[in-house]
Structure formats: C-alpha cells, structure tokens
Amino acid sequence: MFTCVQYTHGVTGRPFLVGTRERVAASEARADWARVDARPEVDALSPRDRAALAAHWQRAGLMEHASIAAFARFTLHLLALGAPPSLVAQSNGALGDEMAHAEFAFAIAIASAYAGAPVGPGPLAIDGALDGFGQVAFLETLVREGCIGETLAALEAREGEERAVEPVLRRVLGIIARDEFNHAALAWRTLAWLLDTGRVGRVQARTTIDRALQEQAALARVARVSAENANLDRFGVLSESERKVLRAVACESVVAPCADALLGPRTAERPRPAVQAV
After folding, report:
1. 26: number of CA atoms within 13 Å, CB side?
2. CA 86/CA 159 separation, integer angstroms
3. How many degrees, rounded to 5, is the angle at CA 250 between CA 248 and CA 256?
4. CATH architecture of the domain covering 2-263
5. Of 66, 108, 258, 275, which one is least surrounded by beta carbons within 10 A?
6. How confident is the model over 113-168, as pLDDT tens digits?
7. How many other CB atoms are found less than 10 A from the CB of residue 61?
C-alpha cells in the first residue's frame, strides 16, 4: 500500500513527487529501519506527549524513506541528461544521507512510543514515477523537490535543532539540517548547470519557479491548521501553525532571492510572487 498526500513539504526530506502529489509508503510493524544510536530520553514525558512525538517522527521517517526514491530517480534523470560526474556523485551521496535520516527517525519513533512499538516503512509504490521524462518535466521536479522542498526541509530542521534541548534530538536535527542544506545546494547547482549548458532557458526557469511559489501561496491560503500537538518545542517539534509561517517566510526570504541571484534581477513586469502565511 502507499499513501498520496497533497504536496506541503511537511517535516523533513526531499518529497517524492509523482505528478504533483507527494508519495510515501504506509507504515508497518518492523524494527529493522531503526538505528541503535538514536534513542532520546523521553521517560519524563506524559503519555500524550510521547504519543505526539512518536507520531511526528514516524511521519518524518516515512518521508525520509520516500526521499531515497526521489534521489534514486534524480540520479537516473541526471544520467539521462548527460550530467557531469560531480552532480551524479552528489546525488548518490544524498541518497545515503536520506537513508540515515529515515533510520534516525524510525528509531526515535520507536523509542518515544510506549512499549517501544516497532514501526518502519512498508512497500513504496513507484508506478508512474518515471513516466513522461523530459527536460521540462525534470525542471518541474527539480524546482519542487529540490530548490523548494529541500530548502524548506533544511530550514525546518535547523529551527528544530535550535529549539531542542534533548541531546539526541538536537544532534539528529543538526545532522538532518546540514544534509538538507547540502541537498538544496545540489538542486540549485543542477539548475545552474541546466542554464549554463542551454538545456533550460532563463525565462523557462523563472516561469517554473514562479509557478511553484504561487502554488505555495495557494496552499497557504487553503490549508487548514489541525489541532495543535502537545507542546514539544523543547524536543524540536514545530507546531502546524509555526511550520506554515516558516514555509511562507522561507519562500519569500530564501527561495525567491536564490532564484533572483541565479536568474538575474526581475523586471517591473514580473514582480516576485508573494507567499504569505494566513
């Protein structure tokens, strides 16, 4: 079984998009995806807080697991486009990072749950994941998964690291933030290579990024903020409303300026799309 959810960049990791939908596996009872060196101290937490923390990291684990598929596909696409070995090697390295992130996440989820209930990923459906490949489709996926998705994931992990006081969670979030920043940089380097080699035009890239930012703005307008989780701020967990604000600020203050730096200054006819938290 698999689950398709609306593309929202929640938690961490490069989203595995099939079309415009984010795909993750369903969870199942298993413990072989958990690292033994990622067991936080949660005995003092209430049952409600432990359940919330376990659920948060289970979701994170499923998304990091899906990120492995996203980078496997990214590597294939790079090879199909004749990318230089440096980009291919960095993509393969990123795949290994995402596997470690998934193992961290499932270990924390198991340790946080009462009785240490085992949990890990089930089968991940990949049907349709390689359909319709071409430079236009590659650009669309690169912008959404990498330039935006990885940037937002990195910033959320860094914010969580700064809040966390529990040592294991602070260490794990620091590793994830560092790796996701590197993955975001890989996406922007790949876009620069596409531009430098003439595989993609600047107008085309600008249009694709603007459309993706406008999608983020639309999601911010219609997204419903669910009931807030227990207060897990000291464990580096952002509330849904805080995550929503962070995404909006990151699109406006990080993603859009990165696009401007790569593509050149905007004209008066093409103002920067505004992404606002509501």
Report:
1. 5
2. 30
3. 100
4. Up-down Bundle (1.20)
5. 258
6. 876 789 999 999 999 999 988 899 999 999 998 999 899 999 999 999 999 999 99
7. 31
Structure tokens at 46: 């209430």
Q: Are 28 and 117 in contact (CB under 8 A)?
A: no
DSSP at 129: T
| pTM score of the predicted model | 0.87
**End-to-end Cα distance, the chain:** 34
Contact (CB, 8 A) for 108 and 169: yes
For helices 151-163 and 167-196, give the axis angle rounded to 10 degrees.
160
* HEC letters along 138-201: HHHHHHHHHHHHHHHHHHHHHHHHHHCCCHHHHHHHHHHHHHHHHHHHHHHHHHHHHHHCCCCC
The residues facing 158 across adjacent strands are none
- Nearest one of 58, 239, 55 to 160, comparing CA atoms: 239
**How far apart, in whole angstroms, are the C-alpha atoms of residue 89 and residue 208?**
26
Distance between CA atoms of residues 110 and 117, nearest Å: 6
**183, 177 contact by CB (below 8 A):** no
User: Which tens digits make up the pLDDT trace of 10-52?
Assistant: 446 788 988 878 999 999 999 999 987 888 888 888 889 999 9
Q: Which two tokens stand for residue 222?
A: 């219609």
